Automatic annotation (TrEMBL):
Name of the molecule in the record: Pre-B-cell leukemia transcription factor 1
Region spans: Disordered: 15-37
InterPro entries noted in UniProt: HD, Homeobox_CS, Homeodomain-like_sf, KN_HD, PBX_PBC_dom, TALE_homeobox
Gene Ontology biological process terms, A to Z: cell differentiation
Domain of life of the native organism: Eukaryota
Every Homeobox domain range: 229-292
DNA-binding region: 231-293
Function comment: Sequence-specific transcription factor which is part of a developmental regulatory system that provides cells with specific positional identities on the anterior-posterior axis.
Domain PBC positions: 36-230
Native source species: Gasterosteus aculeatus aculeatus (three-spined stickleback)
SMART domains, alphabetized: HOX
GO molecular function, one term: sequence-specific DNA binding
PROSITE patterns documented for this protein: HOMEOBOX_1, HOMEOBOX_2, PBC
Length: 352
DNA sequence: AACAATGATTCTCG
DNA sequence: CGAGAATCATTGTT
C-alpha cells in the first residue's frame, strides 16, 4: 500500500502543478491587464482549489458551473500559456528506465522453475516430472516428486492469480486516471504526453509491486526446494513384507546377490518400492552383510530355512519325493552354510 | 537420552 | 554407469 500512496502523491503532483499555475501571481496580473475584476478571478481560483475538498456531487456541479463560466476560456488560455513556460522544466525529469536487471533475473528464475511460462496442465505432468528429475531415470523418483509438483502447482496458481489481479488493478487504475485527466483537461491544459507520462509512472509503480510478488514467489519456490531436498533424506522403513521379500532374494542368492535389472524390477513391484530403492537396499545389504557376517547369521539361517521350507512345499505340491531336509535351492543355501562354518567372522567374500 | 537399525546420499574407482 | 565404501539423517528400541 506504500506504493499506492506514493502513486497517489505522484498523481497529485500533477494536479499540484496546475494549482501552482493558478496561484501564480503572474496569471493574476495578466487577468488584471485584461481588465477583468480581480475579485471575480480570485473567486474562480478559490473554487478550483476547493474542488478537491468537496464531495463528488458538489464538485461535479461546481465543475459544470466553472465550465460554463464566462471567464473559463480566458482562464484556460492563460493556464495554457503558463504551462508552455513551465513544461520545459519538467521535461528534464523524464528518464526512460532500461529493463530492470533484477526483474529479468526473477523472470528467468520463475521461468526455469516452471512457475511462469507455459501453463503446465495435468497432461504434461510427466514432462514436469522428467524436467524435475533432470537426468534421473523417469521410472523412479516420480513418487517423491508428486508432492513437490503439487506444491509447485499451488505456488504457480497463486502467482498467476495474483499477477492477474495486479494487471487488472493496473489497467483499471490507468483507465481511471486517464479518464480523470481527460476530464480535467477540459478545465486545465493537459498534453497527451503528460497523460502518457502519468501512465508510465503508474505502470512503473505497479511493476514494482509485481516485482515484490515475483520476489516472494521465488523465495517460496526456494523454500519449497530446500524442504523437498531435505525431505528426500526423510525415509520410511519398508514394511515387513517388503523386507521379507528382499531378504528372501538376498539369502537365496547369497553366492551372487546382484539382482539383474529385471529381477530388480520384479522385486520393486513385489515390494511396492522403486527400482533404485531396491538397488539401495541391496547395496546396503551387501556391504553390511560383508562387514559383519556374524550379526546376520541368525537372519541368514532363518531365511535359508524359510526358502528351504518353501521349496519343500513347492516340491510337495508338485508331488515330488524330495524330503524337506534336502532343499532344492541347495547350491546357494549350502554355499552360505559352508562359508559360515568355515570362516565364522573372518573376511567373507561372495563367490563371484 | 543413548544407541542400533536402516534407507538415502555422496564419493571414488574400474 | 554400477558397485563399494563412508557417511548422513531419520526411525525404532532400550
Amino acid at each position: 500500500m506504500d506504493d499506492q500512496t506514493r502513486m497517489m502523491t505522484g498523481l497529485t503532483g500533477l494536479g499540484g502543478l496546475a494549482q501552482a499555475d493558478v496561484g501564480d501571481p503572474d496569471s493574476v496580473r495578466k487577468q488584471q491587464s485584461l481588465g477583468q475584476p480581480q475579485q471575480d478571478i480570485g473567486d474562480i481560483l478559490q473554487q478550483i482549489m476547493a474542488i478537491t475538498d468537496e464531495s463528488l456531487d458538489e464538485a461535479q456541479a461546481r465543475k459544470h458551473a466553472l465550465n460554463c463560466h464566462r471567464m473559463k476560456p480566458a482562464l484556460f488560455s492563460v493556464l495554457c500559456e503558463i504551462k508552455e513556460k513551465t513544461v520545459l522544466s519538467i521535461r528534464g525529469v523524464q528518464e526512460e528506465d532500461p529493463p530492470d536487471p533484477q526483474i529479468m533475473r526473477l523472470d528467468n528464475m520463475l521461468l526455469a522453475e516452471g512457475v511462469s511460462g507455459p501453463e503446465k496442465g495435468g497432461g504434461s505432468a510427466a514432462a514436469a516430472a522428467a524436467a524435475a528429475a533432470a537426468g534421473g531415470s523417469p521410472t523412479d523418483s516420480s513418487i517423491e516428486h508428486s508432492d513437490y509438483r503439487a506444491k509447485l502447482a499451488q505456488i504457480r496458481q497463486i502467482y498467476h492469480s495474483e499477477l492477474e489481479k495486479y494487471e487488472q488493478a493496473c489497467s483499471e487504475f490507468t483507465n481511471h486516471v486517464m479518464n480523470l485527466l481527460r476530464e480535467q483537461s477540459r478545465t486545465r491544459p493537459i498534453s497527451p504526453k503528460e497523460i502518457e507520462r502519468m501512465v508510465a509512472i503508474i505502470h512503473r509503480k505497479f511493476s514494482s509491486i509485481q516485482m515484490q510478488l515475483k520476489q516472494s514467489t521465488c523465495e517460496a519456490v526456494m523454500i519449497l526446494r530446500s524442504r523437498f531436498l531435505d525431505a528426500r533424506r526423510k525415509r520410511r522403513n519398508f514394511n515387513k513384507q517388503a523386507t521379507e521379500v528382499l531378504n528372501e532374494y538376498f539369502y537365496s542368492h547369497l553366492s551372487n546377490p546382484y539382482p539383474s535389472e529385471e529381477a530388480k524390477e520384479e522385486l520393486a513391484k513385489k515390494c511396492g518400492i522403486t527400482v533404485s530403492q531396491v538397488s539401495n537396499w541391496f547395496g546396503n545389504k551387501r556391504i553390511r552383510y560383508k562387514k559383519n557376517i556374524g550379526k546376520f547369521q541368525e537372519e541368514a539361517n532363518l531365511y535359508a530355512v524359510k526358502t528351504a521350507v518353501d521349496a519343500a512345499n513347492v516340491s510337495a505340491q508338485a508331488s515330488q519325493a524330495n524330503s524337506p531336509a534336502t532343499p532344492n535351492s541347495g547350491t546357494t543355501c549350502s554355499s552360505f552354510v559352508i562359508h559360515r562354518e568355515g570362516s565364522a567372522a573372518v573376511n567373507y567374500v561372495f563367490d563371484f
